[in-house]
Amino acid sequence: MTLTNSRKISKPAKIALLTAWSLFMLVLGNNVDSDFVVNKSFASSEQSPKLVRLDKLQLAGENLGEFSPYLPDRGDLVARGDDVYYTQDENLGIGVWESKPGSMTYDDLQYDELMLVLEGQLIMTAVGGEPQYFNKGDGFVLPMGWSGMLAVGEGGVRKIWVSYMGGIKGE
């Protein structure tokens, strides 16, 4: 049987796969001893790429750097974070991000992004829509093209983000 590229994966399927993979990596990072090593031999004698560990301290809000204005042309957030991983082509990125209370606008988002709230609260309000509240343990996907307001609740927020940017890094 020959596989071809005649089947395209739908956008909802891509988002679901990305979400599942991201949550698996988050769980793995929180439940594996720090001296865990993956070293699997392949028939070709080539080594598998190394796993990228999500640092427990960063997930807990430590080692994320100093707070500074975050995209001041779009809002008043003061944030910090770490871009943990990017694929070689920079289409997929993963990071930990933390912000003090404030808000920012999105106008026609140019990539898909999964957000998983680790601590605190995010309030997302689509243009013309009602606020949606996301607390610790809640996750959601901002699809490409989304417009609205991201607001950080009184206690601040820390989240893990996974973005499929399709070559558009950091927009």
Explain this structure.
By secondary structure, this protein is mostly beta strands. It has a domain at 56-164: Jelly Rolls (Sandwich), CATH 2.60.120.10. It contains two helices and eight strands. The protein has helices spanning 11-31, 56-59, and strands at 68-69, 78-86, 92-99, 102-106, 112-126, 132-135, 139-142, 148-164. Strands 1, 2, 3, 4, 5, 6, 7 and 8 form an eight-stranded antiparallel sheet that branches. It is globular, with a radius of gyration of 18 Å. Residues 1-7 and 30-44 have low confidence and may be disordered.
Architecture per CATH nomenclature, i.e. the level-2 architecture of the domain at 56-164: Sandwich
Please give the radius of gyration in angstroms. Answer: 18 Å
Helix proportion range:
10-25%
Structural class: mainly beta
CATH fourth-tier homologous superfamily of the domain at 56-164:
Jelly Rolls
Layout: helices, strands, pairs:
Blueprint: H1 11-31, H2 56-59, E1 68-69, E2 78-86, E3 92-99, E4 102-106, E5 112-126, E6 132-135, E7 139-142, E8 148-164
Antiparallel strand pairs: 1-2, 2-3, 3-8, 4-8, 5-6, 5-7, 5-8
